[in-house]
Amino acid sequence: MSQNRKIACYLTIILLLGCIVQGEMLWLKDILEAQILPEENVRGEFEIYRDTLELIWEEIVWFPVPASSSNEQAEVAFENSWMAERNYGGKRSHEGTDIMALTDQSDYYPVVSITEGTVEQVGWLEKGGYRIGIRSGNGNYYYYAHLASYAGEWEPGDPVEAGDILGYMGDTGYGPEGTTGQFPVHLHLGIYVPLGADKEMAVNPYWMLKYLENSKLTYSY
Ligand SMILES: [Zn+2]
Question: Which residues sit opposite 103 in a β-bridge?
Fold first, then answer.
């Protein structure tokens, strides 16, 4: 082999090796990029979540249980029981806040809508008893459960103003329709925010209720 052909051979081999190494580098780069989260999407989701929570703070008006003008004993109490264990219907976590009636009397305390909105769900649920769900204009869902009775004949689509009486606190649920007495009288409040087209996420209502504690209507009961 002539000297020139040898040099040409070496150069070809070096070129080929270079191509292979470069190809692998590009391949590795693709793999690495695929594993790093696209930062713009994360930022987008974070902003949607933040804006959604801000809308809750803007739309909540009244504490869901008014104060009594005539009965000093008619008080309520609530704790932060977010994600506490519940056992009825299988092990699950508590997605809400329970507002307990210190006067343990069903069908006594009125329950008002925290926000304006429209009635979306009404009627019996095995776990929720007689419940009513209000969808706010901003798209958030407020779920009031274990009611003893409703204030009127609510139908899905009915408009609701903040402060309208939805029903009366009770101890319904944990069984077939009409079941009562499985737990003390209380209002279970759940708040759900939309995440995209058909996903929902429960948020902890405790902080909203703490914020609303000084915004109670006063009714005679
Ligand atoms: Zn509850």
Answer: none
Instruction: Using the predicted structure, report yes or no on whether residue 58 has a pLDDT greater than 80.
Output: yes
Calculate how far, in angstroms, residue 60's C-alpha sits from the geometric centre of ligand 1: 20
Closest CA to 109 of 78, 153, 140, 85: 78
118-144 tens-digit pLDDT: 999 999 999 999 999 999 999 999 999
Residue 191: burial class (beta carbons within 10 Å; 0-12, 13-18, 19+): buried
Q: Which residues crowd ion ligand 1, with CB under 5 Å? A: 96, 98, 188
- Residue 174 CA, ligand 1 centroid: distance in Å: 11
3-state secondary structure of 72: coil
Q: How far is the CA of 138 from the centre of ligand 1 (A)?
A: 24
Higher-pLDDT residue of 12, 51: 51
Tell me how far the alpha carbon of residue 76 lies from the centroid of ligand 1, in angstroms: 14
Question: How far away, in angstroms, is 90 Cα from ligand 1 center?
Answer: 15
pLDDT in tens, 166-210: 999 999 999 999 999 999 999 999 999 987 777 888 999 999 999
Measured in Å, residue 128 CA sits from the centre of ligand 1 at 8
**Of 2.70.70.10, 1.20.1740.10, 3.60.20.10, 1.10.287.3510, which CATH number belongs to 48-219?**
2.70.70.10
Q: Give the side-chain half-sphere CA count within 13 A for 211.
A: 13
Q: How far apart are CA 193 and CA 74, in angstroms?
A: 31
Sign of the alpha-carbon dihedral angle for 49, 51, 52, 53 = positive
